User: Fold this.
Amino acid sequence: MTLSIIAAINRKRGIGYQNKLLYWLPNDLKRFKALTTGHTILMGRHTFESLPKGALPNRRNVVLSRQDLHFEGAECFHTLEEALKSCKEEEEVFVIGGAMLYTEALPLSDRLYLTEVEDDQVPADTFFPEIDPTVWQEKSRECHSTDEKHLYSYSFVDYERIQK
Assistant:
């Protein structure tokens, strides 16, 4: 199994504010959909509750919660370990948030698909963990300028774990 993390982060590694995304970037949302469709997505309870229409279509939605809860259109597990054991060996699994799950999954992950937003002014109360350059190697970077649909410059940056 390949464990991947996908997130949009700003210069300060901010990812959210008051359980909402910091940025509305249509191209980032398209990339997210293209990468995750047909795959398992893992998320914490707060991330699931922040989805405007509930479970994301055409994906296996897995929610992690310490509580015994039911989420329409999703499977629930108490631990990341339990959730990962339920995944197929040959699949790519995406961790989509939030901050606590990113922190827990980062040491186990193989790939990072990040949208790095050129901003440090928008307030954030939730942050992505530090990316250690001795552990992660940048594999590709696609830079985009502002336009009528994107108020901030941003880059799609893919990282792979350095094999030691």
Observations:
- Helices lie at 26-36, 45-50, 80-85, 99-105.
- The chain has one domain: 2-161.
- The longest helix spans residues 26-36.
- The two ends are 19 Å apart (CA to CA).
